[in-house]
């Protein structure tokens, strides 16, 4: 369970991007819906320990994200918006390299990890292809494979469906739903349909404040 309490983030120029945000996120897929500028990325980056909030607290299964960020990072998978790839590296080699960085040193364990992630994300057939040649959908699925290295229990996915065609979007969201069995996945998006079908719980963020929180079926008529 992720618990965010009274989170405030004020940027250097005075922009109050998060204004007293509190959220409880249980295991499974959780949709964070909001228009551009709502504060979604700021909240995602704060939970991913990439920026320190002005005030408030973030706790995941007893780990204090602000006091012990390196501990949370060990159980965190993060797929940022617009993540960069090394264009000439193959999907296999990149995952293998990242597994080394994550401390999966044993050759056999690493091979099994990389192969299982490639299969899970349906990228096995393109594992030797350079990342520069990947379609948008393939790229996002590769991003998820990267985020899953080391079996994280908290997965943050920031606006992953932007620019995907409907088929790839569904494929990507279904992949997330498959993973969501016993982990917390937070999916931020400005597309209502992304959260409507697959997220049992959701919240709406606008102007740095949580406007609504609940099950999509209850909230949709109020959007
Ligand atoms: P979203 O992801 O929902 O589009 P963001 O978290 O990116 O929202 O932005 C929330 C608000 O904070 C916006 O008004 C944005 O312009 C502002 N903002 C984001 N990053 C910065 C920054 N580094 N410095 C100043 N303002 C920022
Ligand atoms: P997507 O569903 O994202 O389109 P696919 O795996 O179906 O992903 O393949 C998308 C693209 O990747 C296709 O344009 C195809 O040319 C290329 N591709 C698929 N399999 C291979 C492969 N084994 N080697 C090289 N390119 C491939």
From TrEMBL:
Enumerate the transmembrane spans: none
A GO MF annotation of the entry reads: ATP binding
Record carries keyword Signal: no
UniProt domain ABC transporter: residue ranges = 2-223
State if Transport is listed as a keyword: yes
Member of which family?
Belongs to the ABC transporter superfamily.
Q: What is this protein called?
A: ABC transporter ATP-binding protein
* Full-length numbering of the shown residues: 1 to 223 of 293
């Amino acid at each position: 369970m992720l618990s965010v309490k009274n989170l405030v983030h004020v940027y250097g120029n005075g922009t109050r991007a998060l204004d007293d945000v509190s959220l409880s996120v249980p295991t499974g897929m959780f949709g964070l819906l909001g228009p551009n500028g709502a504060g979604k990325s700021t909240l995602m980056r704060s939970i991913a320990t990439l920026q320190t909030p002005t005030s408030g607290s973030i706790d995941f299964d007893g780990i204090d994200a602000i006091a012990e960020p390196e501990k949370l990072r060990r159980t965190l998978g993060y797929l940022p918006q617009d993540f960069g790839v090394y264009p000439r590296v193959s999907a296999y080699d990149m995952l293998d390299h990242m597994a080394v960085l994550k401390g999966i040193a044993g050759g056999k364990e690493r091979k099994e990890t990389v192969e299982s992630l490639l299969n899970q994300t349906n990228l096995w057939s393109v594992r030797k292809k350079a990342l520069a040649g990947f379609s948008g959908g393939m790229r996002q699925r590769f991003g998820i494979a990267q985020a899953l290295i080391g079996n994280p229990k908290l997965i943050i996915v920031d606006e992953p469906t932007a620019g995907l065609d409907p088929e790839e979007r569904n494929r990507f969201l279904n992949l997330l739903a498959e993973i969501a069995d016993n982990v917390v996945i937070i999916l931020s998006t400005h597309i209502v349909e992304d959260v409507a079908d697959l997220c049992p719980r959701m919240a709406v963020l606008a102007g740095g404040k949580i406007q609504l929180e609940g099950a999509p079926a209850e909230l949709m008529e109020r959007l």
